[in-house]
């Protein structure tokens, strides 16, 4: 066995219906593929239905299970509520919400327009809050348990220049995660977060580090273990966090970054 292999045993997520925002590409897709392998069904959402449809077909042919693609801009509450209703109509119940949709720019803050700043806040903090509120209200009304897993970054607590709207929004998502872990535990709802370090994806890396920048700022150089992450490593952690094996983990954020953020602090 090694870190590039799946960690949980077959069927560990059997019977779970898992909603992944931003599930059509990148890390959302990678986590979803492993959830399917472990027996889950998926709802994947993003703004691009054609991309989602293609991903859903690919996932179902390679991993089995059922994948429902639903277009949804998490910034629009009417779209979030319609998406949730369609997911419930198809599956009857959603057991896990993985809040993964995000938006980000690397830019000196003074060069961002107010609209650019608000766009990131809206996708990350407002979008996550709207999906969370919609799911949480439903679970509480139905007296059904649920699990939230939210994707944040370590600069939610360290802060970071040049990604200020993202840092502010992710700090908000972390506070949301911890606060609901306390308030909604009585309803059987758990809330946790994962803070991934550098995991290469086509979309985010080409957008955030275009052209030669990805070579110039080789992300592996900043990581004490000397490499970037493998998607399966993140998928293993996410699968554990949404499974019943982590039933006693609540209000936690788990960093998976090879020690990257501590290197910045300690060297
Ligand atoms: C500065 C920018 C910009 C950029 C757009 N804007 N791109 N400003 N730098 N690179 C401005 C626009 O000019 C506009 O402001 C406002 O932002 C809204 O832009 P739109 O294109 O209308 O927005 P929209 O179509 O809603 O697209 C949202 C998006 C897009 C965030 C711009 O990139 C997106 O959807 N990204 C999703 C995927 C993503 O970003 N993933 C990265 C997450 S990874 P004006 O004033 O002109 O109207 C991550 C990990 C952390 O966060 C990594 C740490 C380094």
TrEMBL record:
> Does the keyword Glycoprotein feature in the UniProt annotation?
no
Could you tell me the superkingdom of the organism this chain comes from? Bacteria
The keyword Nucleotidyltransferase is annotated on this UniProt entry = no
Q: Name one GO biological process term.
A: fatty acid catabolic process
InterPro entries to which the protein is assigned, alphabetical: DECR2-like (IPR045017), NAD(P)-bd_dom_sf (IPR036291), SDR_fam (IPR002347)
- Entry protein name: NAD(P)-dependent dehydrogenase (Short-subunit alcohol dehydrogenase family)
**CDD domains assigned:** TER_DECR_SDR_a
What organism is recorded for this protein? Algoriphagus aquaeductus
| Key words, A-Z | NADP, Oxidoreductase
* One Pfam family named in its UniProt record: adh_short_C2
Q: Name one GO molecular function term.
A: 2,4-dienoyl-CoA reductase (NADPH) activity
